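Late entry, evening session. Most of the bench is empty. Finally got around to the prediction I had been postponing all week. Sequence below, unchanged from the version circulated by S.P.
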Amino acid sequence: MRTADSHLTGALGAGSRITAHSTRLGGVDVTEQVQSWQLERSYSTDLPDAMRAFSGSSSAQLQLQISGKDGSSAPQLYSPWARRLTGDIARPGQSVVHAYGTDTGTLPAFRGTLRNRSAASGTDTVVLTALDGAERLHGPAALPKPYAGFYWRRPVATATWCVDELLRQAGVLTAPPVRYPDFDASKPLTLVYASLHGGFAAPYGQPEIVPDPRHYSWTREGAPHEMALVPHAAAPDTAGLTASWFPRSRVTVPGSKLFAEAWVNSAVGIGSTVALEMDLNREGTETGRLRLAVDFSKGEIYMHSGTRDNNSGWYFWWSLPQLKTQPGVWHIGGLFDTTGTGDLVQPTVQPRLTGPDGTNYLFGAGTFSDPSAGQPVSELYQLRLVTSMATEGVQLSSGLPAMPTQAEFTQAGTWSKEAVLDEAILPLYSIPRISGSQWESLTQIAKASMSTAEFDERGIFRWRNYTRFAKAPTSPDLTLTSVRDVASLTVTEEIDACRNYCVQPYKDWTSVGVVSGTVYSDTAVREIPGNSSVVVEYLLAEEEFDVGPPNVDDDESVAPGFSVRFAASNAAGADAVKGAVDLMARREEGRLVLRFTNRTAQRLYTVLENGKPSVSVQTLKPSADPTERRATSSAPGSTSEKYYGRQEYFGDTSDWVQDYRSARGLADAMRAAGEHPVPVIGDVEVLYDPRIQLGDVIRLLDSSGAELDTLAWVVGIKTASTGAGTMQQTLTLRGTRSNGVPADQNLTPDTHADHTPVPAGPSYAAVSSAYPTLGDLSANGRTWRQVKEGTDV
C-alpha cells in the first residue's frame, strides 16, 4: 500500500470520504474544469481466472471529461483544431498527472501521457484518454543476438536482463545511462557497455568470455544501483571471476584516449580486488595490455601498461586509505591517453574515483617512460573484467578530449531512476528473437515467466517475478469489512481453476555447440583516403547472430573468420599496415554495417598479400536447434486428485524458458496456485481508499453473506468520479488460498457411472418353452430384443 501522512490516514480510518482530486495537463492545473474521471488498473493473464499465480502487464488508463473556462467552451479551447496556444494542453502526447484522496490530502494516482481527445461541437465537454508510462514503450524493440552463450554452453543473459535493456532503450533507466551511445564523428563513443543487470549481454559491444554460472550470482542486495554480478569463486588461474567483451569499434593505438569505469561494492563478494583490462592486438601474436586495478584491502590503485603474454610492463600506483576504511559502493574510473605520432607511444594514465559518501578523488596523471610500458601500433581487441566483488555498469569509452570532470564522471542530475527490477530469472543461452514494440515484448516476457510488469502511480516501472506470489501471505495490508467498507461483492469458484498436473515446456541448449555460419567475402578492394571513413554494408539475416568488428591481419599473423588487412597500395605484395584504422561494426535493419576510419594521412586499401580483397565476414550459429523438453509438477494420489480428478495445465511453449530448473520452478508455481480451486472475488464495491495498489493483500470480512474471512490479492482497481463529491471504487480480488480440503461430511457422492445390473429378461428355458422350434419363433415375427427383454415394443 502507498504511504499516506497522518492526516489522510486518520481521515480514512475514521470513515471520512469527503472526496478531492487534482489534475494537471501539461503542468497546468485543470482540477476545477474536470467534470468526471475514471481510472482503471488490472493485471492481464493467460492463466485460468481463479489461479492465484497470475501474470502479465498492467497498463493504467485514465479517462477525463473537462469543460471550458472564462466564457469559452471546451471544444473552442481544446479541440484538435483549436489554436495551439490553448489546444496544446490537450494534444496527444501531452503529460497528465492525476491524484485523488480526501479533503485532508491526496495521493498520486496516475502519471502518463494523453492518447486521444474528442470534442463534440455544441457541448462544453472534451473527452480525453491517457495511458501511463506504457505509452513511452511503443518504440521498436530490439535485443542483441550474442553467440557466446551457446559457444560456451553457459547462460549469456536472463529474461530480467532483457527487460532492463528494453526499458533502457525507451529511456526508463535503472542505472546511469550509457555515456556516448550514438555515433558522431565529432564526439566520443562508448565502445562497451555491460550493465550486468542479470546478464553479460551488451547493447554496445559483444560478450566473448562468459564465466561458469556455478561461480557467480546476480544480486540486488548491495548492488550499486539495481543489480550486480557477485563472484562465488574464481577460476583457478585468475585473481577473480573473469568476463570479457569485444568493443563495437576496434580503435587504434597510438591515437586513442580510453576511459574505463565500473561501479563496485567492496563490502559484497569473495575478495577485495577489481580490474579492468584492455587487450591490444599487436603485430604477430603478441598482445598488449592497459590495466586499471583497485585493491581495497591495501587501499591502492594501479594503472599498468605493457603486455599480457609475459606480464611485462610498468605501472603507477596511488594510495587511498579510504578504500580500506569506507567499505561500500565505489565508482572507479581510469583514463588511458595513448595519443601521439609514430609507431610507439608511452601512455599517460590518471584515475578518478567516487566513494560511498559521495567524495570525489582525482589523482595526478603519470606518463610512462620505461621502454617496457610503450605500446606499439595495435588495435583494441577486448575489454576484460576480473573481479572478486559485486560489480555493475562496466563501460569503456573512446575519443574523450580529457579526463571527465567531476560532474561528467558522476552524471549527477542527468538521469533519474525510473524502474525497479526483481531478482534475475530464466537464464538464457540464446536471446530469443522479438518483434513489435518494447511494451509488447515486455508483455510477452511477463506472460512466459509468470511475472508482472506495471508502472505505478508515481510513474515508476516495477517488474516482479512469480516468486512474489509463491507463498501465501499471512498478514494483510488492509482489512475491509462488509459492516463499513464493502457495499457489495460476488464470490466465484470453478473447477477450471484447479490445476494439479502442470507441465512447462522448455528449450534445452545444453547439448548445442557452435559452427560456422555464412561467410561474406568482399568483391572489391576498398580505398580509404587519409583521415576519412568508408562504410561497407552486408545483408545479415534475422536468424544470424551478431559479429564484432573484424580483426586486423598483418603479415606475421592471420586471424581466421572475421578479419581485414590494410596496405598502403592496391597491389600484391604490399606490406600490411597495423594500428591505422578504427573499425566499427553495428547491426542495423537487416544489415551489417562496417565503418573503416583511417586515422593517418596516407591512403590505405583493403587488400590481401596476394592482391585480392581482404574483408572477410564470417558469422557463427548454433550447431543444432535446441531440444524441446518438459518439466512436470504433480503429486499422484493427492487430495486434490481425490476430490477433483487429475486436471492438467500445459504451459505455453516459449523460447524464454531454456533450462529444466526454470521450467520446474514455473510448473511448481502453477501447481501450488491451482492444486485446489481458489475463489475469485469480483465486483467488490468498497468505500474508496487511495492507498490501495495492485498486488496488495486485503483481508476481507463479510458477515452479511457467507461469513467470509479470507486474505486476497488485489488484481484490479477501478475508481471513478462522476461528479463533484462522488467517488466509486471497485476491486477485483483473487484469494490467496482455497477454503481448505473438501470434507463431504454426511455425503455419499454418486459414482461416475451407474453400475446397477440391467434386468435379466426371460431365461433360455422360458423362451424355448414358448417357442419349441425356430419356425415357431419366426412365425411370431418378434425381434430378438423383444424376445430377450420380454416386451412387445
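Two things to note before I forget:
The longest strand covers residues 257-281.
DSSP finds 13 helices and 50 strands in the chain.
Will write this up properly tomorrow.
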